[in-house]
Design goal:
The structure is a single chain. 54% of the residues lie in helices and 14% in strands. It contains 23 helices and 13 strands. The relative contact order is 0.15. The structure holds protoporphyrin IX containing FE. The site of protoporphyrin IX containing FE has 24 residues, from helix 15, helix 16 and helix 23.
């Protein structure tokens, strides 16, 4: 009797368990059917021109691999014009790519277009909930406090640090050069990465990482290890983590563990830096000579009259990780590509050296003003930022059904001519910095060539777009790069200091690959080595 009732209870429990399991399985099936078959039928992008592809065929490589996009985008523009749709992870995931200036201005300035939730989750995993991941009012509030740290005056205040660290790099190269050996190969990617880290440490937070001396500082190592996890691309586990943010809590892989350990190190350091800086500022009572980004930021935060608008300590901490990222890799990569292009164009390199001839005999204050009056330096820096933008592209998601205005009407697949692109809520839009910078219709038929002199007489379309410093490289609108002046001055100083002391020549064939930013890699025997590096033959001009 007893065992029979036990059997009945067990049977009932089994039924409940099956039902409980059935609910998520059914939910998953409905979700899949909706995503793969129902939603795509109503997608307005179906009517847009663009490459066709099967249910699980992707065009992401053609759109996002910087090693081929400088060519593939040109072909798409020829075939489909300035705006087209393509397959993300399959034909169920149609996405829009546009380099139509009017459409870009509309999208990048409208609060209706935000970074997709997965992108924001990735940014939050790496950089916390700083300004990179913020949208709406939270973003406006953070931006308001951050902006004073990046005015032309604030940036000029930290320029001596740029000179000081760039000179230190030159001394390091000289010390490591074997006497009498001309054209010794140095991995400039690696050296410039360490230099930019030291610069953002000192100029950003009044902190010495000493990365140029030795790569043993724990915050530097934590940062490198964390971003090193992104070098091999996202991979299926990361894509799952971004879709289901609770997953790493129950299934953490090596990448999750490295990121979590690295963040702990960076946060412990950051909290200490903020605390120290606050105490110094309190004791100096406004007389501080410290011009670091952090000091200006803390001052702006304290001076904010509305308490609700002030950033909390946790938010300040997240900005530190943000600046560490924004201020190191993107700038060092920009200098890397500039040196690479100069190594491939020795005549431009010599002309630049001539322009800078009197530079080394000046004192530091005059050097900064002098660099402002060097047109070729300005053109070389802008031209390399145009040809090789560190941020290859970015992405936005429509948060409502909308009509995006275009300057060039689009011939839709049904033959109609559209002056507005209809877009459904939830659709992804790729904003291609590189494709815009290389577009022949905007920059002229020689758009894919390195020609600094083009900046003396730009075509009207290249002159009139909204990008910062005349480029799409820093994007534009409310989410554009606040650090662009800082970056431009740092690149100018480092290039000027290096070029006046060394000659740079190519050592290997170089390709580009995307790992958060577009990095260089060596091609040997036709094979692409996925470890980022830029070996250049360096010859001292002063020895
Ligand atoms: C050559 C160097 C740099 C390049 C090419 C670059 C490029 C960009 C781009 C394209 C964006 C917009 C991304 C998007 O909307 O998806 C951006 C945003 C940002 N950048 Fe930079 N950046 C550079 C240097 C810097 C520096 C030096 C800093 C600070 C020290 C910085 C801090 C930021 C921040 C905080 C944002 C987020 C702005 C927001 O969402 O409101 N960047 N950057």
């Amino acid at each position: 009797m007893f065992s029979l009732s036990l059997l009945a209870i067990s049977f009932t429990l089994l039924k409940v368990l099956c039902l409980l399991l059935l609910v998520p399985v059914l939910y998953l099936c409905v979700w899949l059917v909706h995503m793969l078959y129902i939603a795509p039928r109503f997608d307005t992008l179906n009517n847009m021109p663009g490459p066709l592809g099967g249910k699980l065929e992707t065009h992401l490589n053609d759109m996002m691999n910087p090693n081929i996009t400088s060519k593939s985008h040109g072909k798409f523009i020829e075939k489909y014009g300035f705006s087209w749709r393509f397959n993300g992870f399959g034909s169920f995931d149609l996405r829009l790519l546009t380099l139509d200036p009017r459409a870009l201005a509309y999208i990048l300035n409208s609060p209706a277009y935000q970074k997709p939730v997965q992108t924001r989750r990735l940014l939050s995993i790496l950089l916390g909930k700083g300004i990179f991941a913020a949208e709406g009012d939270a973003h406006k509030r953070q931006r308001k406090v951050i902006n004073p740290a990046f005015t032309a005056q604030s940036v000029r205040g930290v320029a001596p640090i740029f000179f000081d660290k760039a000179e230190k790099l030159c001394r390091k190269i000289t010390a490591e050069t074997t006497t009498g050996k001309e054209g010794q190969s140095f991995d400039m990617y690696h050296l410039l990465g360490r230099l930019a880290f030291d610069i953002i440490g000192a100029a950003g937070f009044g902190w010495e990482f000493h990365a140029l001396d030795s790569e043993s500082e724990e915050v530097y190592l934590a940062y490198r290890r964390m971003f090193g996890t992104m070098d091999a691309g996202p991979g299926p586990k990361l894509l799952l983590d971004l879709q289901f943010p609770w997953l790493p809590k129950i299934w953490a892989d090596e990448r999750n563990r490295i990121i979590s350990r690295s963040n702990k190190t960076i946060h412990t350091w950051g909290a200490q830096v903020i605390e120290d800086r606050k105490q110094i500022m309190a004791s100096e009572k406004g007389t501080s000579q410290d011009k670091s980004i952090l000091s200006v930021l803390l001052k702006a935060n304290m001076e904010e009259s509305n308490n609700a608008q002030r950033l909390s300590d946790a938010e300040l901490l997240d900005q530190l990780s943000t600046f560490l990222f924004g201020g190191s890799d993107s700038v060092s990569i920009a200098i890397v590509w500039c040196l690479h292009l100069l190594s491939l164009h020795p005549t431009v390199q010599s002309s630049l050296r001539e322009e800078l001839a009197s530079f080394r005999s000046m004192d530091a204050d005059d050097q900064t003003s002098f660099l402002d009056s060097c047109p070729l330096l300005e053109y070389v820096v802008k031209e390399s930022l145009r040809l090789a933008p560190p941020v290859h592209s970015t992405i936005r998601m429509a948060t409502k059904d909308d009509l995006i205005p275009v300057s060039r009407p689009v011939t839709m697949r049904d033959g109609t001519l559209a002056t507005h692109i209809p877009i459904k809520k939830g659709s992804y839009i790729h904003i291609p910095m590189e494709a815009f910078n290389l577009c022949k219709d905007i920059w002229g038929s020689d758009a894919d060539e390195f020609k600094p002199e083009r900046w003396t007489d730009l075509p009207p379309a290249a002159r009139s777009h909204l990008g910062l410093a005349g480029l799409m490289t820093f994007s534009f609108g409310p989410h554009s790069c606040p650090g662009f002046r800082f970056a431009l001055l740092e690149i100018k100083v480092v290039v000027a200091v290096l070029i006046t002391q060394f000659d740079f020549a190519p050592a290997e064939t170089i390709k580009r690959f995307n790992a958060v930013v577009s990095r260089p890699a060596v091609v040997k025997d036709g094979q692409f080595d996925s470890n980022a590096s830029l070996p250049l033959k360096v010859t001292s001009l002063t020895l």
